[in-house]
Design a protein that fits this description.
With 309 residues, this protein is mainly α. It is 75% helix and 0% strand. The protein contains 10 helices and no strands. The protein is rod-shaped, with a radius of gyration of 49 Å. It starts with a helix and ends in a 7-residue tail after the last helix. 19% of the residues are buried.
Length: 309
């Protein structure tokens, strides 16, 4: 019995009590016993009986209310738990989707950045190796021993994605300039390895490879437009291009390269060409200034103010 029904029943019970008391009084009066003590006793009995029934029903109602409240609380708690489970499941699905979509993408980006930084560091290391090998050329020429064989350079195994990124950042012409550096590094290593293998096996072949090595080194040490690539200056120019094009790169510990030399920029233009629409905007004024330095007004006539990307 709910509280509303109890209140209605309690009102009815009180009205029935009054009816029973009046009925009992009329019955006693009809018997001539209206003035006897039986009327009061009967009325008291009926009142006590009514109170007892009301209290019993009240206790039953309260117990049912508590039971209903407990069931409602349990249903509420279960509903909250179900919602939390559903929410947790939804969050788990979202997290799983995020991990599945973005973590591999982030790892791929991170891997590309690592590859770019590795290429940059190899540029710096190869410059040092070239300087070292240049300093021991006299030992190789005078007394060819295994200790006089030049050190090999760090070669590049660049994946397709990294190549595309470098080309996009550098532009096609500057990218070909970078590839020429990679080719010359590979050519140096092939010659050094042939020379090392022939040192004790075939003296005549060793002399041929040594001559080839000196020819390559002389070519890569030549200045201005006498060479397509000066290994020291042009590797430094490539290092500068990487520093300008890839912001996550930390400059070499010996200091950030401040600029490409005019000779390097003139070699790029003379041997590799110039594509206005595919040249980084930061490189345009440097190319113009280098060409003007080579021949007054040359840069201004070839490179317009609005060119570059």
């Amino acid at each position: 019995m709910n509280r509303k029904r109890f209140e209605i029943w309690e009102k009815w019970k009180n009205e029935q009590l009054q009816f029973d008391i009046d009925h009992t009084a009329d019955d006693l009066a009809s018997r001539g016993m209206a003035q006897s003590g039986l009327r009061a006793k009967t009325a008291l009995y009926l009142v006590e009986k009514c109170k007892a029934e009301i209290e019993m029903e009240r206790a039953t109602m309260v117990a049912e209310e508590k039971e209903n409240e407990a069931r409602q609380r349990e249903r509420h708690d279960q509903s909250v738990a179900n919602k939390l489970i559903a929410l947790f499941g939804l969050v788990s699905i979202c997290v799983s989707l995020w991990v599945a979509i973005f973590v591999p993408r982030y790892e791929k980006v991170l891997k590309r950045e690592e590859n770019i930084e590795a290429i940059y560091k190899n540029l710096v290391a190869n410059q040092d190796i070239f300087v070292f090998n240049s300093n021991i050329d006299n030992d190789l020429a005078d007394d060819p021993k295994i200790t006089a064989i030049p050190d090999v350079f760090i070669e590049y195994d660049i994946d397709g994605d990294t190549r595309k990124i470098i080309q996009d950042k550098f532009g096609l012409v500057q990218y070909r300039y970078f590839l020429y550096y990679v080719q010359q590094t590979k050519l140096l290593n092939e010659t050094i390895n042939h020379m090392r293998a022939a040192l004790f096996e075939d003296r005549n072949q060793f002399i041929v490879y040594k001559k080839n090595y000196f020819t390559i080194m002389d070519y890569l040490n030549a200045e201005q437009l006498n060479t397509k690539f000066n290994y020291i200056n042009d590797a430094a120019c490539l290092q500068y291009m990487f520093e300008q094009s890839f912001s996550p790169i930390k400059p070499d510990g010996r200091g950030e390269i401040l600029d490409c030399s005019s000779d390097s920029l003139n070699r790029i233009h003379h041997y590799f060409g110039f594509l206005p629409a595919d040249t980084p905007s930061w490189l345009i004024p440097k190319l113009r200034a280098a060409l003007n330095e080579r021949q007054s007004g040359l840069g201004d006539s070839i490179i317009g103010d609005q060119e570059g990307r």
